[in-house]
Amino acid sequence: MGSLEDVNDLRDWLGLAQEMGEVRTLSGAHWDKEIGAASEVNYRLPSPPALLFDAIEGYAPGQRVLTASMANARRLGMTLRLGTDLDDRGLVEALRTRPGEWVDSAHKYPAQEVDSGPVCENVVRAPDADLLAFPVPKWHEADGGRYIGTGCAVFTTDPDTGVLNAGAYRMQVQNGGRAASINMEAGKHGAAHVRAWFAREGRAPVTVSLGHDPLLLVVAGTEVPTGLSELEYAGAVRRRPVEVVRGEVTGLPVPAYSEIVLEGWLYPDRKEPEGPFGEWTGYYSGGVEPVLTMDVERIYHRDDPIQLGAPPGKPPHDYSYMRSVMKSAMIQDALVRAGLPGVEGVWAHEVGGGRQLLAVAIKQSYAGHARQAGYLTSQLPSAAYMNKFVIVVDADVDPRSLNDVMWAVCTRTDPAEDIETMRQTWGSRVDPLRAPGLPPFNTRAVIDACRPWTRLADFPRVAESGRELLDHVVRRWPDVLGGSR
User: In what order do the strands lie in the sheet with 343-348?
Assistant: First the structure.
């Protein structure tokens, strides 16, 4: 079997995943809704495999689309170079302290510029550049069009510092394949870069990778600290630099081992109607609104390129598991680094898209500890975007179990005393509660589901067996009770 150290691109990743028995191939699907629907069915399996679509209707065999790349612990652990045989608990344990360590060591792994790479096997220049030469799916039944950007990494730079940012934004094919709209959230780093370029030069350079080592989707889809390049962060995870080539038009770097790369410019007045699109909240969002659109100046692609798809939707969806794991690890690491004592665990629940419902387990050590944990978590940079509920529980509650968390809410929360709200916090345009035309504020609740500090000594004892006794009966009757604990 190949090793994690050998994984350099999507093809290496796919080969290792296939050796692990983690990939299923589906042939003959149509790009119009069938790929999306089959992916949706797959996400709802107990441990969904990666799904590789080939021989897509209307396109030559070899032009493939991959979905559910990191929808279980084994493949996410592989992607993060943590191991190839991790379960959920093992993955969470392996990730402890890692996000902070990756941030601290990222400067040691600057992107390495090379003269050429596999992505340069084919270079298509405008006006011949056509995005619909690739089997771009229409993912959901009511989507406004075909979305080439779901598992993408959109690259922008800070015009003052040159720091590169990678973000995962939805991208709809426009103008019959000659352009693509890029729907950036206003509070994201990429949008700030674009505004700065507009103010400085009246246009903004952009490149987009559409197929790559799924690690780049992880770093593009989570909040890496301001001023830190996602490519350097990815290098820290890999423990070796990411190789890049310079685009012919903008000069921006792009991964040399990408499957497909787009290059062009954004202009303040260049917009196309975009949406709606089935978003990670589980609802269609956006209606039809004008969105910044890039006319494609260059397409670079490998022979028989593979698109990395990551369509959102009602959870669980393509990247909800990945986001839950990564956000949980990043938030827990940030709480520890902020000096909060007694942090036992954090889980960003998949039902809330890994953002809207956070559970934090603490070992209470002073009056006000639970509220401090809740308020601090709700506004951490790694947690603040579109968070709606932070639930703080005692250390005897598993924050990963929604059943246990809600049991704690039902039995340890006094609604009149233990639920506090914060208003006009950082929301999103994709929030189904946001009325059209209003700013993307949201409201969030901090729920104290810990035993009351004043009643720790006399609060009723939980009616459950101890861990040693549970382990004993499972070991005695493993065939009936499910194996070793």
Answer: 343-348, 357-362, 389-394, 441-449, 419-426
